[in-house]
Amino acid sequence: MLLLKTSQKIRAAQGTDAALGNLTQFEYLALSSPLNLSDGHARQSLTPGQAEVVEALPLLWATAAANPIEETEAAAKRAYFRLLGQHSFPTARGRVLSCYSSSVAMEILARSLATRTDAVALLHPTFDNIPDLLLGAGLRLLPLAEEALHDGDLDQELLRAVGCVFVTTPNNPTGRVLSQERLRALAEQCAEHDVVLALDTSFRGFDPAAHYDHYAVLEDSGCRWVVIEDTGKLWPTQELKIGWLVSSADVGLPLGRVYSDILLGVSPLVMMLVQRFSEDAARGGLDALHRFVAGNRALVRGDLADVADVGFPDAESRVSVERIDVGRRPGLEVWSALRDHNVHVLPCQKFHWAAPSEGDHLLRIALSRKSAAVASAVSTLRQVLTGG
Ligand SMILES: Cc1ncc(COP(=O)(O)O)c(C=O)c1O
Q: Residue 181: in which H helix or E strand, if any?
């Protein structure tokens, strides 16, 4: 009974899909459910070290109010960028713009790019708010397949056709990380073609393979570059987060002006919170987080290991989301059956923004959740998949 078989139900699910414009709209449906494994935001419990930071909030508030914002901001940047190995991050004024979230940083980048170019080569698949924001700014998108990105040099014709190459690394949903060698080669190609290289590194914190010093590589290459960093995926901070919009000195885009169209700055209280969470992570919290995510991933893979025709396409992934290949079953049908049990995951079509059918048999499940919630959701998924 659990795996819905009637064409009526499938049509209903497809109707929902058509009505829902994007992945975030699927994520809204899950927000109030205790079994929300839909969005990639961190919703696990605070660790004891993090709970101490939260208990100190009144003190942080007073400190934030008393200190010059510039100092508070510099301390937050130092703590976060160094935690993740980004020692060569720029410190000159205007080079790291603090935004309310990475989507706000993305909107500023998209609007800025639209003043200088009409086309962007964008990783495929990737989280759909990236193509949506670029399209919203009036840009044309050319898909850059993940395999092509990792396998070798980009097609010269593609580079001649665009003003920017945009890569998410580690990627959401696949977890693939651009290696240091590939970043160097890509940045050199972008320099040669005078194309801006833009990176979204929102999931960087989860994978040590993404902790080499990207800024040293980018600066060495001589290309024009932009990086969006995001504190929002790592820690359960109740959506208090920063998206950092980082750029090369000669980026040639009006980032500062567009930024000033949208915001004055991020709350210094949030900056202090990011600084303290980063310091806790440096004292062992990051390793503990990696173990926690790996534990939840092992739980998902273990519980579904013997289910026929089910697989995990991202064997190497360390990010806080996991894709599940549900075989011949339509992903949307499984998603709908889970929803009937109040379990929320994401169907994957919309990650494949240029070829949605490539995601027809894939689901994405969030791992930054309490292990008990992951276990319970996966047990329901198992029943749905086995018709038990
Ligand atoms: C790769 C990537 N970039 C940016 C975002 C947007 O993050 P936010 O909603 O915090 O702005 C997401 C959201 O999941 C994401 O996966």
A: helix 180-193
- CB of 231 within 6 A of ligand 1: the answer is no
Question: In one letter, which amino acid is 232?
Answer: G
Predicted TM-score (pTM) above 0.85:
yes
CA angle (139 as vertex; 134, 144 as ends), nearest 5: 75
List pLDDT tens digits, range 37-69. Answer: 998 999 999 999 999 999 999 999 999 999 999
CATH 3.40.640.10 domain range(s) in the chain: 50-279
For 306, the token pair is: 């013997």
CB-CB neighbours of 83 under 10 Å: 20
CATH 3.90.1150.10 residue ranges in the chain?
A: 7-47+284-386
> Atom 12 of ligand 1 has which residue's CA nearest to it?
127
**Centroid of ligand 1 to alpha carbon of 66 (angstroms):** 32
Q: Determine the Cα–Cα distance for residues 187 and 181; give it in Å rounded to an integer.
A: 10
* Cα-to-centroid distance, 9 and ligand 1 (Å): 31
If you take atom 14 of ligand 1, which residue's CA is the nearest one?
40
pLDDT tens per residue, range 158-183: 999 999 999 999 999 999 999 999 99
The fourth-level CATH superfamily of domain 7-47+284-386 is: Aspartate Aminotransferase, domain 1 (3.90.1150.10)
Tell me the CATH architecture of domain 50-279.
3-Layer(aba) Sandwich (3.40)
Q: Find, among 337, 202, 190, the residue nearest to 250 by Cα.
A: 190
Question: What distance in angstroms lies between residue 130's CA and the mean position of ligand 1's atoms?
Answer: 8
> Cα of 39 to ligand 1 centre, how many Å?
9
Using a 6 Å cutoff on CB, does residue 129 contact ligand 1?
Answer: yes
Q: Helices 255-262 and 102-114, interaxial angle, to 10°?
A: 130
Residue 134 CA to ligand 1 center (angstroms) comes to 14
For residues 166 and 190, the answer to whether their CB atoms sit within 8 Å is no
DSSP annotation of 241: -
Q: Is the CB of 201 under 6 A from ligand 1?
A: no
Q: For ligand 1, what atom is nearest to the CA of residue 127?
A: 16
Position in ligand 1 atom list of the atom nearest CA 105: 11
What does the longest C-alpha to C-alpha distance in the chain come to?
63
Phi, psi of 199 (to 5 degrees): -120, 135
